[in-house]
């Protein structure tokens, strides 16, 4: 009671700020509301007071926390509480002329999340009007399908007035290609930017380039660019979830585990470390743990596409297909140009025998993202499920392989088709050609299967061994190798028995050794699965 009204207002704001930093968001909102009520009362009393007192109170009133800043803090509390509607209502209550760039930026992001695209575009444009170099506002507009030329026109004056800023127009062009799904042109444009001395070894550009290679299905170059970015910035977190996923797919689970530990040491308040650990669990076939880690990542960042894909894949493999579909659909909403989101959803449809829905979705992707090797292969994958559309699948795969002969998914599906037709020699030629410039566990394993079909047992065993050296957790390669050992040994034993009974019995002893070795492999595989 000893404090003046203005001091009470200040203390309420300081108290609310402290609660905000202690993450007591509901309590903070309550105190901010009380502070605003106090400020309102303060404004009324200052109007009633005679003009002689105004001159003395002016310096003090200037030191008072801004009412607009208090409302911004309240909106931050609401976003942390996942009450986006309340956050929008608070910020909408601020007159347009009084909105600072950060208020417009928060409003734009909230509108975008709520699906109010027109309002979001207006707010992003207002940010750019006040701050023409706000790159996040530029990306926001491009993500909402505003044309690159229109966005560039809003920055043209600043580009011309500041020296060494000519790269910005090329940067806008590159990210316009990114958001229209034109990965090839986006990659070429960013590569041209990266060659410029001003942006050479720029970590943000390298991360974008790695992500684009990943979207284009070029996993090898994607991993290289992520590694390059990581070397330049050891504390890099952005994009590491995709990097961890790629390493896990290649069977490099030890590297994934090390990456997860390193990211947790940097920060456990980002989604990426949880996703990386989830990928390790998923590819170790510990789906329940992967599900938990994916859920934790989504809790930290509801816009994490990789977290949604991880959780969706875990749910699908646990047989909870309908729940998985919800997660893949949300991933598509957030990243409509990412093919892996559609692949996950289509796999769910196929798992639940909803071939018609899968076909509709695959056709939509083909029309939306264009006829490239990836969309052609995805459509062919669905066509392979229906006996009526086998010929169409063959035609689509041929087109995909003409565009990109090294595209692994297309090679795998074409091999599957040739296996059905029992054209093993053609399949072997296809796989040898694909493996000429790259080494992939799945391709080596399938080549092993084809070689078994044409009785080339020794080379088949070699291919299974190579596959296991690339991914020790590949169960199918292990099963193929064990089957070969079991089938080959009795044949040898029979041949030896015809010559000498004693030698034949010795060969049986070798067979026992082979079985025990296979059992060791099986135990090792089980151990990997349980870790």
Helix percentage:
over 70%
**What is the chain-wise order of helices and strands?**
HHHHHHHHHHHHHHHHHHHHHHHHHHHHHH
**What is the overall shape?**
elongated
Structural class: mainly alpha
Region (Disordered): 479-531
InterPro entries: TPR-like_helical_dom_sf (IPR011990), TPR_rpt (IPR019734)
Protein name: APC7 protein
Keywords: TPR repeat
Question: If you had to describe this structure to a student in words, what would you say it looks like?
Answer:
With 531 residues, this protein is mainly α. Among the domains are: 165-233, Serine Threonine Protein Phosphatase 5, Tetratricopeptide repeat (Alpha Horseshoe), CATH 1.25.40; 237-333, Tetratricopeptide repeat domain (Serine Threonine Protein Phosphatase 5, Tetratricopeptide repeat); 422-487, Tetratricopeptide repeat domain (Serine Threonine Protein Phosphatase 5, Tetratricopeptide repeat). Helix content is 78%, strand content 0%. α23 (373-383) packs antiparallel against α24 and α27 packs parallel to α29. The protein is elongated and about 95 Å long. The termini are far apart. Residues 479-489 have a biased composition (Basic and acidic residues). Keywords: TPR repeat. TPR repeats lie at residues 305-338, 441-474.
Topology:
Elements: H1 5-21, H2 25-48, H3 51-63, H4 67-80, H5 84-92, H6 101-113, H7 117-130, H8 135-143, H9 148-153, H10 156-161, H11 167-179, H12 183-194, H13 203-215, H14 219-232, H15 240-249, H16 253-266, H17 271-283, H18 287-300, H19 305-317, H20 321-334, H21 339-351, H22 355-369, H23 373-383, H24 390-403, H25 408-420, H26 424-435, H27 441-453, H28 457-470, H29 475-499, H30 501-530
Organism: Pomatostomus ruficeps (Chestnut-crowned babbler)
Keywords: TPR repeat
TPR repeats: 305-338, 441-474
